[in-house]
């Protein structure tokens, strides 16, 4: 079957579900990786790996959604619950901007106490005070929460955000886009359509977004294939996704830790990246991460079909809550990309090249 | 098998037909951009030899002393006599270090200026008497050579007496890189040179003592020097046949700083894969997690490695040189490292007798 997959992948033909299954399960890891690498260079011939100078702060940890994989959130009224004021968030943006950040990925819990204006002010003020920074704010489920609280449609929320100056949306909150998985680990967040419909509407309006996947918990191969199929189909509609960004679930301090003690290791990650490069034939970029899987696995991933290395993440709290911490400087990112044999290039939120090193 | 670098095609044909690789092939393996191509070839060889098996041993390190007369530039472990941080274990201390579950002890230490050979002989004898079921892997060729330099004891005599005392196998350390240029540059000329190192392993093999071989890479050596090192080991194995495992050691930068950073994981994967391909007469190639880190060691099981060493309780030499890995890994963590790669953990003893297959 691998020969047939190779034939199709190298001739730009779409892989079907059974082929995806073979790649995710039986195919030898390095065969999958080598083919993904070949396809990556056929599409992006230059030995360039991009990264973004960014930060990943949060505006609140208050959340009513009770996802079982999350160590970050606190219920409203909890002694450890907190919500930042607009000024406090903007101080974080200012701090990151001073360090050269061009992207601020801002997300938070689903806090019903926050009015729509809070979010819109964050976007507007970021645009006004820090024009060099792209507000890459609010995942799909936060946008749904805003709509519920303001009692308007999700499309209207997107329109308000657009008018405030927002142009891109982060891809978090997808987890695994399968009914079965989402019912099991995040029953209050809705099925795959809850995430997909926001991205569809956003793409239609002209937003760009990323698609993520958090694997390594209760999902089976069919769930992963459902996820790949769903985002590939959506990408056919408006081509609004810039990149696919998978990471492994970190069980520390979560409810799921009772059943899942350890994160899926580096080999699973390399396979996931390579398969996504082959299966998601309409995604321009596949992001490997020094952050979520470690610098070693992250570097090796650049030989398995990935062409982007994520961001500097000056601040990150969600993995940290799961007792998983990793830090890096711009200088170190450049060194690590070079060591892996690639030319580092700083990019924008929308994957435009700012500077080649 | 297809490659993005055409140079790998003729090498692949040799690998598939079992033909020995040349020096030039070795250079190509280290030069090519097709890292995964090299890895796939090595994986082919490893899988043909061992299927999905990956070996580990429940072992512990004993480092009798860090007092050393040498001043090798790459070493963060050694201390001068009386220097802060120097230590000398008594034989009773060392006997007490061997725990119930230990199957192998690995004993390597500094070149102590005063300890007589008899101290080493009694050390082995005492551990063997106290725990006869535990296999003793002790003393690098550099230490055996030092017994001659210091006490004029011939290696054949030293090894014969140590074997009588209870020594069963020898570790592969002290080889560093077989290069006169680097021996001079990194100040290890006072140590067994390549001829002597190989000679001593040959003597051990002649006495029925199995040994390992190492290569310290990732500092200032060239790829060509790595290839020479591997070819030299291959020739010695042809001559004496007693090597069990080749253990590439990634240089740890923290204290000695010969280079600013540890060599990247892709280089370690390539080195393991090239070793598997060039050392066609070595039964095993190891992914030594202490120097690689657990992630890279796990990935290396797809690049030709069939062994992860072991639990390595109380490893000191690499850790005092800056290794960031935990000093000693529980069996469960080794399992995870092996199973994450989709491989089958096989517990072995020091001589690769299978203790248990964990399906």
Greatest interface (CB-CB under 8 A), with counts per chain: A-B, 30 and 27 residues
Q: Write down the secondary-structure element order of chain B.
A: HHHEEHEHEHHEHHEHEHEHHEHHEE
- What topology, given as strand order, has the largest sheet of chain B? 2-3-4-5-6-7-8
The mean pLDDT of chain B is: 94
Residue share in helix of chain A? 40-55%
Shape of chain B: globular
Order of helices and strands of chain A: HHHEEHEHEHHEHHEHEHEHHEHHEE
Question: What is the quaternary state of this protein?
Answer: heterodimer
Distance between the termini of chain B: 29 Å
Largest sheet of chain A: 4 strands, mixed
Please state the structural category of chain A: alpha/beta
What class, by secondary structure content of chain B? alpha/beta
> In one word, what is the shape of chain A?
globular
What does this molecule look like?
The complex is a heterodimer of chains A (357) and B (359). By secondary structure, chain A is an alpha/beta fold. Chain A has helices at residues 2-10, 17-24, 29-43, 86-98, 116-129, 140-150, 154-164, 179-185, 192-205, 221-238, 266-279, 290-293, 295-301, 318-321, 330-339, and strands at residues 48-52, 54-55, 103-106, 134-137, 168-169, 208-215, 241-248, 285-286, 308-311, 343-347, 353-356. Chain A has a four-stranded mixed β-sheet. In chain A, helix 10 links the parallel strand 6 (208-215) and strand 7. In chain A, helix 5 packs parallel to helix 7 (154-164), helix 7 packs across helix 9 and helix 9 (192-205) runs parallel beside helix 10. The longest helix of chain A is centred in the middle third of the chain and has 18 residues, at 221-238. Chain A starts with a helix and ends with a strand. Chain B is an alpha/beta fold and 359 residues long. Chain B contains 15 helices and eleven strands. In chain B, the strands form two sheets. In chain B, strands 2-3-4-5-6-7-8 form a seven-stranded parallel β-sheet. The interface between A and B is medium-sized, with 30 and 27 residues.
């Amino acid at each position: 079957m691998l020969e047939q997959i190779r034939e199709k992948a190298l001739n730009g033909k779409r892989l079907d579900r059974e082929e995806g299954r073979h790649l995710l399960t039986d195919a030898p890891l390095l065969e999958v990786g080598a083919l993904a690498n070949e396809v990556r260079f056929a599409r992006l011939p230059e030995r360039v790996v991009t990264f973004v100078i960014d930060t990943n702060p949060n505006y609140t940890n208050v959340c009513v959604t009770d996802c079982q994989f999350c160590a970050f959130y606190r219920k409203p009224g909890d002694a450890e619950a907190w919500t930042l004021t607009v000024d406090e968030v903007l101080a974080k943006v200012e701090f990151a901007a001073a360090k050269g950040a061009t992207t601020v990925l801002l997300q938070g819990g689903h806090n019903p106490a926050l009015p729509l204006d809070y979010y819109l002010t964050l976007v507007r003020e970021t645009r006004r005070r820090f024009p060099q920074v792209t507000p890459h704010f609010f995942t799909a489920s936060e946008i749904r929460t805003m709509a519920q609280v303001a009692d308007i449609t999700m499309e209207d929320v997107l329109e308000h955000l657009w008018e405030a100056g927002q142009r891109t949306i982060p891809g978090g909150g997808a987890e695994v886009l399968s009914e079965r998985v989402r019912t099991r680990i995040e029953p209050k967040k809705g099925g795959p359509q809850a995430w997909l419909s926001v991205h569809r509407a956003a793409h239609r309006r002209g937003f760009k977004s990323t698609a993520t996947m958090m694997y390594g918990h209760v999902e089976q191969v069919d769930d992963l294939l459902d996820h790949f199929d769903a985002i590939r189909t959506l990408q056919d509609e408006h081509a609004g996704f810039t990149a696919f960004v998978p990471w492994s679930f970190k069980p520390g301090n979560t409810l799921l830790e009772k059943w899942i003690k350890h994160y899926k290791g580096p080999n699973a990650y390399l396979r996931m990246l390579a398969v996504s490069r082959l299966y998601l034939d309409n995604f321009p970029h596949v992001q490997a991460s020094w952050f979520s899987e470690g610098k070693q696995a992250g570097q090796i991933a650049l030989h398995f079909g990935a062409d982007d290395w994520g961001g500097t993440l000056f601040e990150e709290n969600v993995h940290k809550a799961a007792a998983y911490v990793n830090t890096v400087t711009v200088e170190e990112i450049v060194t690590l990309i070079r060591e892996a044999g690639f030319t580092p290039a700083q990019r924008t939120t929308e994957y435009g090249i700012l500077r080649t090193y | 098998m297809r490659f993005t670098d055409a140079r790998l095609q003729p090498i692949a044909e040799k690998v598939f037909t079992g033909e020995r690789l040349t020096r030039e092939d070795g250079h190509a393996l280290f030069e090519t951009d097709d890292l995964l191509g090299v890895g796939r070839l090595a994986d082919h060889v490893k899988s043909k030899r061992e299927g999905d098996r990956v070996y580990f041993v429940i072992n512990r390190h004993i480092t009798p002393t860090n007092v050393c007369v040498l001043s090798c530039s790459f070493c963060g472990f050694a201390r001068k006599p009386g220097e802060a941080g120097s230590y000398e274990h008594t034989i009773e201390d060392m006997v007490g270090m061997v725990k119930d579950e230990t199957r192998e002890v690995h004993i390597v230490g500094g070149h102590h200026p005063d300890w007589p050979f008899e101290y080493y002989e009694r050390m082995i004898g005492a551990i063997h008497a106290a725990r006869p079921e535990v296999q003793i892997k002790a003393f690098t060729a550099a230490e055996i050579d030092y017994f001659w330099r210091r006490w004029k004891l011939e290696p054949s005599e030293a090894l014969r007496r140590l074997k009588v005392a209870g020594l069963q196998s020898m570790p592969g350390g002290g080889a560093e890189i077989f290069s006169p240029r680097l021996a001079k540059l990194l100040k290890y000329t006072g140590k067994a040179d390549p001829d002597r190192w190989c000679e001593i392993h040959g003597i051990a093999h002649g006495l029925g003592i199995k040994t390992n071989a190492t290569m310290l890479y990732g500092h200032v050596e060239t790829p060509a020097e790595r290839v020479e090192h591997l070819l030299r080991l291959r020739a010695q194995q042809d001559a004496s046949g007693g090597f069990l495992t080749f253990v590439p050691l990634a240089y740890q930068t923290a204290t000695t700083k010969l280079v600013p950073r540890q060599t990247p994981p892709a280089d370690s994967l390539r080195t393991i894969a090239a070793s598997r391909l060039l050392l066609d007469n070595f039964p095993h190639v190891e992914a030594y997690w202490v120097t690689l880190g657990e992630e890279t060691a796990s990935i290396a099981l797809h690049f030709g490695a069939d062994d992860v060493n072991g639990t390595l309780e109380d490893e000191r030499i690499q850790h005092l040189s800056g290794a960031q890995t935990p000093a000693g890994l529980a069996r469960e963590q080794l399992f995870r490292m092996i199973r994450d790669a989709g491989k089958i953990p096989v517990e072995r003893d020091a001589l690769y007798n299978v203790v248990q297959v964990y399906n």
